[in-house]
Amino acid sequence: MLPIRDNNPTRHVAYVTLGLIVANVLVFVLWQPTFAGGNAQLKQQTFYWCHALIPYEVTHETNLASGGPAAARALQRQYEDGSDPRIGQEIEDFLRQKCPNKSWLASVFVSMFLHGGWLHIGGNMLFLWIFGNNIEDRLRPFWYLLFYLAGGVAATALEVALAPSSALPGLGASGAIAAVLGAYLVLFPRARVTTVLFFIFITVVELPALFVLGFWFLLQLFSGVGQLGTDVAGGGVAYSAHVGGFVFGLLVGLVLRSRDRGRPDPMFSPPRPDFP
């Protein structure tokens, strides 16, 4: 199931949503070692260690390079493959050379603009473009940007809470975008979403947002439950971050919906200028 657009008009051009998309793409193309040649995997992993969120760093309020023996043990538990009993200490020494001054606090926000590959950023930006403009239109630019960042922090909070000792980097805008999806589900449940269904045949249908986003959340929730106890937060797909962001968005959406009682239905707003 892949949403490709919604039939939900807005009153204003979504400048913040567009800016967030541009910022994510520029970071991916110009800052991350996306086109690195020669040992590209090591360069990318080093970049993630030096800039992405790492649960251990947040819970211990220090970076891995400065964490001493405790950080080395955390790295050892995370990366030991049986062939190198000192891999944790070696990684810590490596990070001390590459990024000794990493800010664990800044990484909470920086990680929201990092991605692990073309499919990762492509999927995230598609969801942000489809659903973000309506939430921006409802909140207005300043509060929408604040909501977006707070959603990313809420997503990180659940991810860290479930795997506080993980030394694997976590990155991506998924948590913040999940908050957008949660708010959208509450505020525009009847909006029609054009969706590609991959089931035996490829079919394009219009479905209510309640179904599309509700199904997406259930998938994240069940996947996250299956991930519990595996200490993979920050590695692979951090479903817990998706759940945390989505629930935050739901709560904000419920507050906004309660304030909207008695007002005109936002589904009948004028056509938006950013879509033909």
Task: Throw out a few tags for this protein.
276 residues; 8% strand; 11 helices; 3 strands; 3-stranded antiparallel β-sheet; mainly alpha; single chain
> How much is the average pLDDT?
88
Number of H/I helices: 11
Distance from N terminus to C terminus (CA atoms, Å) equals 24 Å
Low-confidence runs (pLDDT<50, min 5 residues)? 231-235, 266-272
Structural class: mainly alpha
Count of extended strands:
3
Strand content: 5-15%
How are the SSEs placed, and which strands pair?
Blueprint: E1 2-7, H1 15-31, H2 40-51, H3 55-60, H4 68-79, H5 87-98, H6 104-110, H7 118-139, H8 141-162, H9 174-187, E2 192-199, E3 201-208, H10 209-227, H11 239-259
Antiparallel strand pairs: 1-2, 2-3
What's the quick description here?
By secondary structure, the protein is mostly helical.
Overview of this protein structure:
By secondary structure, this protein is mainly alpha-helical. It contains 11 helices and 3 strands. It has helices at 15-31, 40-51, 55-60, 68-79, 87-98, 104-110, 118-139, 141-162, 174-187, 209-227, 239-259; strands spanning 2-7, 192-199, 201-208. Strands 1-2-3 form a 3-stranded antiparallel sheet. Helix 8 crosses helix 9 (174-187), helix 8 (141-162) crosses helix 11 and helix 9 crosses helix 10 (209-227). The longest helix has 22 residues, at 118-139. The chain is elongated. Mean pLDDT is 88; it is low at 231-235 and 266-272.
